[in-house]
Design brief:
Chains A, B, C, D: InterPro entries: Gfo/Idh/MocA-like_OxRdtase_N (IPR000683), Gfo/Idh/MocA_Oxidoreductases (IPR051450), GFO_IDH_MocA-like_dom (IPR055170), NAD(P)-bd_dom_sf (IPR036291). Chains A, B, C, D: This is Oxidoreductase. Chains A, B, C, D: It comes from Flavisolibacter tropicus. Chains A, B, C, D: One of its GO terms (molecular function) is nucleotide binding. The structure is a homotetramer. Chain A is α/β, with parallel strands linked by helices. The first copy, chain A, has 2 domains: about 140 residues, Rossmann fold (3-Layer(aba) Sandwich), CATH 3.40.50; about 150 residues, 2-Layer Sandwich (Dihydrodipicolinate Reductase, domain 2). In chain A, the strands form 3 sheets. Chain A has a 9-stranded mixed beta sheet with strand order 16-13-12-11-7-10-9-8-17. The longest helix of chain A is centred in the C-terminal third of the chain and has 19 residues. Chain A is globular. The two termini of chain A are about 35 Å apart. Chains in contact: A-B, A-C, A-D, B-C, B-D, C-D. The interface between C and D is large, with 55 and 55 residues.
Chain lengths: ~350, ~350, ~350, ~350
Amino acid sequence: MINIGIIGYGYWGPNLVRNFFAAKDCCVRCVADARSDRLEQLGKVFPGITGLQDADGIIRDPEIDAVVIATPVFTHFSLAKEAILQGKHVLIEKPMTSSLIEAEILLNLAEQKNVLLMVDHTFLYTGAVEKMKQLVESRELGNIKYLDSTRINLGLFQSDVNVLWDLAPHDISILNYIINERPYSVNATGVTHTHNAIENIAYLTVNYSSGFIAHFNCSWTSPVKVRMMLIGGDQKMILYNDLEPTEKVKIYDTGYHHKTDEEKKRILVDYRTGDIHVPKLNTSEALLGMANDFISSITESKDPRSSAQLGLNVVQILEASSKSIKQNGREVKLESVNAHIQHIDQTVLSF
Amino acid sequence: MINIGIIGYGYWGPNLVRNFFAAKDCCVRCVADARSDRLEQLGKVFPGITGLQDADGIIRDPEIDAVVIATPVFTHFSLAKEAILQGKHVLIEKPMTSSLIEAEILLNLAEQKNVLLMVDHTFLYTGAVEKMKQLVESRELGNIKYLDSTRINLGLFQSDVNVLWDLAPHDISILNYIINERPYSVNATGVTHTHNAIENIAYLTVNYSSGFIAHFNCSWTSPVKVRMMLIGGDQKMILYNDLEPTEKVKIYDTGYHHKTDEEKKRILVDYRTGDIHVPKLNTSEALLGMANDFISSITESKDPRSSAQLGLNVVQILEASSKSIKQNGREVKLESVNAHIQHIDQTVLSF
Amino acid sequence: MINIGIIGYGYWGPNLVRNFFAAKDCCVRCVADARSDRLEQLGKVFPGITGLQDADGIIRDPEIDAVVIATPVFTHFSLAKEAILQGKHVLIEKPMTSSLIEAEILLNLAEQKNVLLMVDHTFLYTGAVEKMKQLVESRELGNIKYLDSTRINLGLFQSDVNVLWDLAPHDISILNYIINERPYSVNATGVTHTHNAIENIAYLTVNYSSGFIAHFNCSWTSPVKVRMMLIGGDQKMILYNDLEPTEKVKIYDTGYHHKTDEEKKRILVDYRTGDIHVPKLNTSEALLGMANDFISSITESKDPRSSAQLGLNVVQILEASSKSIKQNGREVKLESVNAHIQHIDQTVLSF
Amino acid sequence: MINIGIIGYGYWGPNLVRNFFAAKDCCVRCVADARSDRLEQLGKVFPGITGLQDADGIIRDPEIDAVVIATPVFTHFSLAKEAILQGKHVLIEKPMTSSLIEAEILLNLAEQKNVLLMVDHTFLYTGAVEKMKQLVESRELGNIKYLDSTRINLGLFQSDVNVLWDLAPHDISILNYIINERPYSVNATGVTHTHNAIENIAYLTVNYSSGFIAHFNCSWTSPVKVRMMLIGGDQKMILYNDLEPTEKVKIYDTGYHHKTDEEKKRILVDYRTGDIHVPKLNTSEALLGMANDFISSITESKDPRSSAQLGLNVVQILEASSKSIKQNGREVKLESVNAHIQHIDQTVLSF
């Protein structure tokens, strides 16, 4: 039985409490939030859970085995660092941290302390992503050529992170989960329509040396909600529309291959369009799957699906995208993270 | 009565013949195409029109007043130049030319020769674009903040131009038509999945000093056809879905404005969502409207809607996008075209 | 403060408990259900509410002011009758009763006992129906000519009532709410694909002397879920698609009128198609609106929107539809209910 | 080479001319229409075809082998009768005739004269219907339980036939083509919103002794166009949406079966929902397929897909539906046509 403390009871916190309440082999002991009205709300729905105003009460509680962090992004690092130093297993809301260096430090620390560090990329636990992963791995799509994602709606303008840090983690986590190749660079452009220099519309291209390409279109200012991803292989292609109630994943028996016309030295491309298949998907709640993965990864000492490494890779792309936007869309290379990690001075752990 | 000769009877040519046949105050005299099978086809459907294998027979025919050029892009410049030098009015298929300098030369020449030069950006004559132009001009949308366009499908891989030169002219012409501000730079990324270095997927951002931004997503390798454009103002927003049979343009009474919270120094954004309005659109055939505009611009000596200047601006953005892709997405500034035109050496006209 | 007891904690009961819990000026005291597992579930979620296995414990509790009946249809009459005789206000799930005579008796009894009798036709409290009622009443649609409803899906085959009694009450209640004219007859056809003579597909036409017509298509065996209603006036028409997340009600500025061509003695019909308007709808929870209407109708002695009379009219149409199906689709007249009510022998109250 | 004459050059005639022009082994010699403006139009597009104002010129022309009748319904019988008596093969537009007796007489006559009689039910030649026929015949759907069709739009009010005679022939021909069982009765209801007693909204149920049921919803007064058909088997079900550009036929791996709970004497129904499959369809033009079937059925003396018998069966259902509407929805039995045909007095052939 893993005893859990949850820090943050804002937008996402109640969902985490509800699902860890329903998860196996764990018990939600306490929830911390600075706002008393939220703790009052907690008391009404879950009278058996202790409400605390200070996160320290969770982090330093010797009865707590695992800490779940659902606070604003800029606080993730220091809360997670403290919890790991106290020997707690830690689950962090996406995006994992505000910078790559912070993510690297947390991974290092967790390894040293031998605790589980995991990031809540909930989408990895949906039936749709599970099915797409399986289609890519079984090579049913052939060679994967591109991933194109649009995630736009009239959304809350965040005051601390831009629209890519807010919306793209979902799609980048899916990208990292189903594509094994590591990207080598990103380009990003964007614009802010307020005076705070935080982009509310942004576009991100992720480049790969194999010729695979990924593109993300994110906006808080669309009149319509769109949640659409295309994944194209040379054998088959996928349309993933998360707003479809039942037909979320459509597999198109559509492909193309090219050859060189020796005589005219021209490239000839052959197309094929065929049937469409809409597989029945697992419809169990993704967040519950994530919660169970966290708990069982602790109890069975296994790697979770939504691992810290995957979370770090997401942060790396986000950080590079911010650099690219600041440099007017210039290509930003993604250094090898393993090389990078060597440079972390041990003293950095004290900040 | 304007006598017309049409050069090129491939994919688009028959549509041009049919619509100039139906247009007012003009007469299609001859059609030129190097392929005899196409001329045979012409003869069956339009026995009264002369078929020629050589474009020169049209360009040098003194009875021809106006020449319509519907050939591959790389031939546009030399055919148009010859026709203008022969004193013909000229209509060129989009994109106007393969380079900005060619477009500039044609504009200069047409002015010298006092003939009409026009580009067939057919979309400008659709009821949908007409309505959107009117909504923007009447300021019903408020201040326009962004335009976001997706034009993807499983399309013919062109062997001479990339996917942006093939598909984006439609959307860039709409952009240029309804937005008065001139852009100052572009960023573009893309990828080719063949060996001919011609991108089949590409993304283009067009930057404006006012903070307005435009983005274009073009692909020949999507399993689904998408023709979707969002235009966002701070008062209202438009969703333009060209595949909708009747509800192509939806106007969302959705907007936002921001203010600074003086106390906390934070930006506060207020949203508003409201009714949706779907206007009835003019459904007359766009290509016929274009043909009539060409003829009446000649007979009435007026500026056509789809002017050579607009066509040149489209080519300028396309050319810059190609540069940006070659330079890995680097921002490419759009020089003032008027400044540029000074540099054209008169000798260039002989190439 | 109205003290409430709820009988039945199956499919719908928990929704009723949750909403009466949230409603104003009332308190859910106890819930009765014969199944102990359901009462256990109740205890977990609402530890403050008493669970009882016997409905009598609610009906005869002097502290209870109002009884909510959410049990199988065939039990509605006897439970409601007992509750009314005990002087309780009564809310019954739809459909109100299994027969018209039962509904008439309950109305009579409630009047004698001076208690409120109401039926839970939840849809009357949705923003969509509210808007449609308003459009019809303001005569914006002109003269209403037809209502056509399709409510089909792969649904649970009920073992006590056929598909019309199960699904059509929603649509018939909307019909009765927004159309003032009383129907004079019905025709219905249907089929059963099991051996229990309970139709799983059925079609109902409701006839009106003005020429207005209503039609209902109900099925438990459709592979797709459809919730679509058309309401046609001669000035405008409505498409109500309850599955649309945001655009549930579309108003078409489409109409027609006819005149007689005096010369040729033919009917000429003029059409008009125009803009489409999608109004923003009230999105507050319908069931909470219903609960608040029940409570405020008690405390303010007013008529509720979803009145017993409306519920009775729904049952009258359903009963006639069953007769018509049994008689192979023959037209069944709807007698005036007021005339009918005279025939109820006082002794009937004892059954 | 079959020489063809086409009578009627109104709405459908030009499509017939164009397709017989493109069909194999035949030649369109002449077209008859009383209106000179239509013949003028014909002359422009098909200068090689003779235009005639009188149908007799076709029917009595010894060079004509086959006559195509595309005139108003009430003229079909007499034109077809004359043509058959002249020894011509005959193709009639749907619906075949205005009454069952007329259809029977034509079938009899054609048999006596040994000529081909065929009805143009174009939908039978679409890729969608072909696929559905094949799915039903291969028993992939299991036992077919129902067919439910909606064909509504804002349509031209016909002045001679009601909305069922105008729109339902398409769907009834599909029903007759893919379901082998013969129906035993129909019920129909409808309403007219003009003063000419011609229904503009009507509903038709077709009853079968096996428990299979078919239902048709037709309207000329819907603000939206719907072309939707559901075909349900106990193994799989089909959704056929003719307005979908590419996904017209969707096959749902959805079914149900029932058993009797011996203990409780209740019917238990088991459901199954699964994947959805969207087959690629043959997209060749249906009308050309129909034209080729007519010609090859003549030259090869084979039975066409859209046979006179099928056309007669459609008329039988339509005629019964009109009777049912007039009798307020009463069930109208469909007599065995073979029995019926005995009663035709030979003298009837003279009317």
